[in-house]
Each structure stands twice: as C-alpha cells, then as structure tokens.
Amino acid sequence: MNKNCLKVRFMAIRFSIWDLHLYLDTHPDDTQAKRLLEQYEEQYALIKAEYEAQYGPLTPGIEGAGAAWLKDPWPWDIERGAC
Amino acid sequence: MWEYQKTLQYPIRIQNPNPLYAKIIQSQYGGPDGELGASLRYLSQRFAMPTPELKGLLTDIGTEELGHLEMVGTIVHQLTRNLSAEEIKRSGFESYFVDHTNGVYPASSAGVPFTAAYLQSKGDAIADLTENMAAEQKARVTYDNILRLVDDPDVRDVIKFLREREIVHFQRFGEGLRLLTDQLNAKNFYAFTPGVDQPVDVH
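Output (structure tokens, whole complex):
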C-alpha cells in the first residue's frame, strides 16, 4: 500500500471507531455495536503500527518527542501524490 | 485533559488555491454557527449535565468539533497558499489579507471577529440540549450554503463530510434529550431545571 493510501485507510478505521464510540454514548448497552467496535479495534492496532512506521508517532509520548514528533507532514500540510 | 493526535479526522488535499472560497469557508472557523462556537458550547455546557450519558456525549461531540475546527482551518490554509497580489485583489480576499496575511483567524466571512455571544451555557440540560440541536441544524445549513457557492470537488468532498457530521450530531443530541426526559416526570418535562429543581434519577 502506498503512503497516502495507508493514510486514508488508517483515517477510515479511526473514524469508524470514533463514530461507534459516539453511538454508544446514547446506546450504551448495544452489544452488536460493541462487537463491531472490537473488530475495528483489532484492525486499528495493526494499521496504527504500520502508519507510525511511515509517518512517525501519532500522539505525544516517549516515542512522540523530539525529531520523530516534529517530522513533516503536519495534518494541514499537503502531501504530493494521490491515493 | 486532551492529547493531540497528529492526523485530521478526514483527509484534505486541495490542489487549487482559491481565496474567494477561503473567505466563504472562513465562517465555519470563527463565524456565528462555526466549529469554534460549537466546541466551546458543548465543552462548557457539559459541566452542568446531570447524567453520565450526557456528560459523555457533550465531551465527545465537543472534542470532535475541535477536530472539525482543525479541518476548516486546514481548508482555509490550503486555499490561500501561493497567491499573487493580483489574485488577492481580484477575489475580494484583500480585506482579510491586509489584517491576517495567510494566517487563519477566527472571524466570520464578513470579517466579524469570533465572540462567545454566539453561544450559551445555561446550566439547564433541556435548554442547552435544545440549543445544541438548533446549532447543529444551523451549521448544516451553512455547509449547504457553502455547497451552493463552491464548485471545486476537492473542497466539496470535505464540506460534505462535515455536513454529514452535523446531521449525526443532531441525531445524538436528540437521543440525549430523550434519555433525559425518560428520567423526568412525564407529566411535565419542560417546566423545571433538571438537576436543580428536580432530582434526576442517575443510575
């Protein structure tokens, strides 16, 4: 998967998790939605590692400090090459 | 607290700068129904929310709105790069440019600076949730108006995503209001401040 396609795929999985999270705020006992969330979270763990290997750390922390954290692109930068 | 995640919520890649479009979309950064007002509204109101579902809902939607603020700022930034003086003058962007150059500043499309008077935090869950449902609709209408004025597919794609989120948030606030009224006296939902005049049955 090329770099920009990896980015789009990562963002799609992250968004699916977020939207299910929001749904569960008003449907906290929906077990079907929780199962779906677990499936996405399994995929997320895999693609996050791949993403961070290409783009550097996503959040501040031990890894996310100094040069690795500062590395371009920042979210508002345009990257060359489409997916 | 919050921790930054170094991605947008949805990809933005605008190939063609366009200062007129930037001036229009600017309103969703710091205008009357924009994302800054939305995030401050929900993140301020949540302190007075009486149930766990509502505390969670306002925290989460308020957080997502901060991500949308970042997205709108990104659109404005990408639309205003590499402009010539001639393009700036021709597009009507000069009145913004003279004060802010290519910086992203919270103001409406007409140049009115952001004000907290755009929002309320009333300390009454029914009043606040009703305001929030209206706010989501007003933001949705603003995105519809942007879609009437903007042709560029790179920009429209992102605006359509943001518009959809207003609809989802309206639905969630409606569900939140229903969860609250389910716990109040069904003979008279709307005459009291929940959590102040009448205890809410917090489970």
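The two ends of chain A are 9 Å apart (CA to CA).
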